[in-house]
Amino acid sequence: MSHDQLDKEGSLFSVEPLAELASLQTYPAQQLLFREGEVHARIYWIKEGRVRLEMSGTRAGAKAMLTAGPGDLLGWSALLGDQRMTATAVATLETTLISFDAVALLQLCEQNHDIGYKVMHTIARSLSKRLVATRLQLLDLFHQPQGTTA
């Protein structure tokens, strides 16, 4: 049972189908992984390292929104049907990613609902984290120190 794992709820599920789709990719520090707006058909989990996610603004140019680390997900939009990247991703340290072809992973999720649930749960957690980070960025953007006026 080396390819079986207990999930957080204590259920046993096989990770072998995921392992068969996975490949490892290593990027040096400051390497671009993908650019905002590009069509990109891969989804990644960060195994080691850090990745800065940036979004373009009309006035301020690219602004760092979040630094993702081990266990975080990148490229989730490729799995949800829109393969256009919503941010630019740059490795800030040497970074190792577990990479999946989004179409193959989606097919696996549809065939194996246990794995599909785990993958979609991970995506939901990642989106929640990004939403909180975006809110914090907006608060910082619109914050005015006391005693100043617009």
From TrEMBL:
SUPFAM superfamilies: cAMP-binding domain-like (SSF51206). InterPro entries: cNMP-bd_dom, cNMP-bd_dom_sf, Env_Response_Regulators, RmlC-like_jellyroll. One of its GO terms (cellular component) is cytosol. One of its GO terms (molecular function) is DNA-binding transcription factor activity. Residues 18-126 form the Cyclic nucleotide-binding domain. It comes from the Bacteria. This is Cyclic nucleotide-binding domain (cNMP-BD) protein.
